[in-house]
């Protein structure tokens, strides 16, 4: 079969591309690997996108100017980012909400409390599943043809130009194609291959859990990189990786498995030792480093330990924690060496400096003479009951992807294709070399999905003119 624009993928970036191409008058076919009930990829698990704004805007309070957004991104990536593509994403985030509303997305009023995101992030009413459903309804109205349970195994590419896609025994041709099929985070064999064996003889990736869809196997990504030598970007071990509840399911645990009390207590590893500053910065800026930190610990496991003073100050996870009336009892319940655990807690408690605790600011409650330090929100663990949550690394999406530029074109030997484009997780490594800050993945997917869709529609229009 033949279409003007073929979109491979079914999440936010793919839908933004399909909608944009359809708005431009192209006939669009979208292929989603998942069944209809599980459509939307990781986007179904999201809640918000990060938005630049110079003044209060509808659901966003105060201001979050371009330079502050850029500095936040620069900090979490450690400079491993393309500034032009990052700034393109940032600027696009300031103007996308009206377009999203036209396609049925609704936003909820600003949030208050400990998440610190009412100024920076716009939250979807009903979460990511509602956003995905709204986009699919809009796509249907625009005439986009959607086929579920249709994974694509390989592409035909000639001299850098897309020719056809193969889904099972079917060959589908198109004048242009957008790749938005996600990373390889659901492919545990590839994760294990990338992470290898550590100095303790462990294979860390075997302990990883996948926060999102099971359908992001990276089949097309590997095919593009190996069979067609498309230009690559990113480190295969880098990912949006969060510390989540160790009891979470292997796939599709989503947001409710995240543990958000890290900054309110201490985190210890299997040896009952702390290993990083729990109060380094506001949680939305630093939560995504903790998956990788736990991945580096023995057995890829750790415990977030709080006391009663933390109650009500964080989003409660779906599973209850391990609770004890004394710290020695808690150590025994966790299977940790009691003497070492008590020494760790006693050292921390003695190091806590009196200050004015305020979890909504970078307060002056810190430790002194302790390694690693706790920079903010350091209060002694001294008020029972005590609670601990077991942590495992939870992978959201991987950063190895296809190199691109401001046109979203896939590149071969540093030459951009004129009819093959990429968006979403398959190119997020251009902006995210490491680290993460809340909502930026949706910002990248929305910006480059729309760019890719417009580029594909233009390529299809050129092809029609040439063939007329």
Automatic annotation (TrEMBL):
**NCBIfam families linked to this entry:** CobZ_N-term, PRK08274.1
Q: Report which superkingdom the organism of origin falls in.
A: Bacteria
What is the required cofactor set for this protein?
A: FAD
| GO MF term list | oxidoreductase activity
The UniProt entry, under Pfam families, shows:
FAD_binding_2
Keyword Lyase set for record: no
This protein is called what? Precorrin 3B synthase CobZ
Give a yes or no for keyword Oxidoreductase in this entry.
yes
Keyword vocabulary terms for this entry: FAD, Flavoprotein, Oxidoreductase
Domain FAD-dependent oxidoreductase 2 FAD-binding per the UniProt entry, residue ranges: 4-432
């Amino acid at each position: 079969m033949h279409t003007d624009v073929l979109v491979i993928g079914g999440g936010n970036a793919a839908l933004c591309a399909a909608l944009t191409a359809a708005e431009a008058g192209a006939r669009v076919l979208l292929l989603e690997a998942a069944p209809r009930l599980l459509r939307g990829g990781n986007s179904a698990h999201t809640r918000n996108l990060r938005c630049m704004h110079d003044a209060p805007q509808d659901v966003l309070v105060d201001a979050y100017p371009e330079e502050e957004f850029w500095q936040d991104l620069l900090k979490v990536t450690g400079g491993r980012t393309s500034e032009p593509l990052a700034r393109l994403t940032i600027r696009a985030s300031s103007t996308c909400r009206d377009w999203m509303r036209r396609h049925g997305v609704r936003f909820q009023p600003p949030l208050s409390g400990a998440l610190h995101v009412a100024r920076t992030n716009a939250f979807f009413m009903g979460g990511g599943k509602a956003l995905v459903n709204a986009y699919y309804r809009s796509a249907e109205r625009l005439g986009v043809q959607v086929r579920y349970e249709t994974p694509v195994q390989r592409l035909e590419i000639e001299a850098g130009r897309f020719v056809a896609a193969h889904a099972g025994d079917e060959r589908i041709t198109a004048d242009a194609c957008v790749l938005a099929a996600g990373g390889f985070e659901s492919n545990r064999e590839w994760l294990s291959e990338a992470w290898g064996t550590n100095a303790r003889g462990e294979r860390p990736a075997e302990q990883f859990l996948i926060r999102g869809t099971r359908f992001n196997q990276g089949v097309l990504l590997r095919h593009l990189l190996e069979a067609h030598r498309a230009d690559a970007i990113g480190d295969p071990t880098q990912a949006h990786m969060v510390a989540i509840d160790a009891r979470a399911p292997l796939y599709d645990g989503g947001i409710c498995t995240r543990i958000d009390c890290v900054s309110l207590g201490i985190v210890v590893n299997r040896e009952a030792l702390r290993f990083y500053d729990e109060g380094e910065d506001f949680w939305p800026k630093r939560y995504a480093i903790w998956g990788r930190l736990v991945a580096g610990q023995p057995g890829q496991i750790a415990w977030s330990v709080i006391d009663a003073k933390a109650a009500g100050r964080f989003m409660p996870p779906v599973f209850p924690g391990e609770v004890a009336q004394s710290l020695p009892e808690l150590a025994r319940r966790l299977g940790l060496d009691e003497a070492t655990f008590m020494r760790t807690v006693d050292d921390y408690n003695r190091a806590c400096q009196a200050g004015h605790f305020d979890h909504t600011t970078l307060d002056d409650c810190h430790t002194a003479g302790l390694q690693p330090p706790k920079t903010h929100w350091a209060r002694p663990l001294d008020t029972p009951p005590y609670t601990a949550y077991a942590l495992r690394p939870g992978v959201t999406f991987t950063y190895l992807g296809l190199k691109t530029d401001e046109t979203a074109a896939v590149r071969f030997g540093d030459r951009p294709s004129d009819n093959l484009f990429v968006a979403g997780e398959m190119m997020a490594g251009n902006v995210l070399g490491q680290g993460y800050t809340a909502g930026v993945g949706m910002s990248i997917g929305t910006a480059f999905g729309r760019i890719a869709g417009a580029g594909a529609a233009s390529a299809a229009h050129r092809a029609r003119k040439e063939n007329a």
